[in-house]
Specification:
This protein is mainly beta and about 240 residues long. Helix content is about 5%, strand content about 60%. It has one domain: Beta Barrel (Porin). The chain starts with a helix and ends with a strand.
Amino acid sequence: MKAHRLFRAGAALALLGTFASAQEQPDGFFAGLKIRSAAQAASREDGLMPVYFGFGLECGYQFSFGRLSAEAGFAYKAGRHYLVDLTQMENVSADSGHYDPIDMDWAVDSRKNQLEGITLRLSYEKPLKSFLVRGGVQLANFKFRQEYLADVSSLEGWFGDQYNGVTDKGSLSFSPYIGVAFPFLTNHFIELNIVGLNYKAINYVHVAGSELDWGTQNSQTKLDRIEESNRFMPHIELTVGFRF
């Protein structure tokens, strides 16, 4: 099911939920399961898809003033294959006595990224007449993974670089969120949240011509590097949950 269809279905459930009562639950322990998807409310970055999916196991306590809960889960954001713009690629020969530009008709650098991680959410919910307002923070250990496969040659044959590999990096992050929850059927509910997804992206950078042996199978050298970027991406999240 495409993301926009899922969100239309969620909006319909939310309208139905407004006619349900935010049932007065007795004080005490509760537990539940949540399944979620989210659409990015900003331009795409890092070759990742504009949606992510996840699930969580929740437990908490109902007080007279509201609900406090903790949720352990998993989140996954896939990516598509994309081509790197090689017109701005660093070139060792540009600093030498003889500049040999990249042959753009034959050069290719293909990448694919993904983001996944374990999440822990801490939430507070306040029941109102027909819905609940909620907010909290997500602590996550996200791993950003990048695959790359490339063949870059020069016009005059000064270099022919072939490089490939996989690199990844894990990082801890904090992501705030705020939203509303609507009861739906007995012990079922949906949530609509705004989440500021926080993660660290990495990108492998190759310097053309830094491998002296032409056509080396894996032309990675000490001039190559990994660049890191901090991202903060707002998402609109739909969650379907069940408590028992």
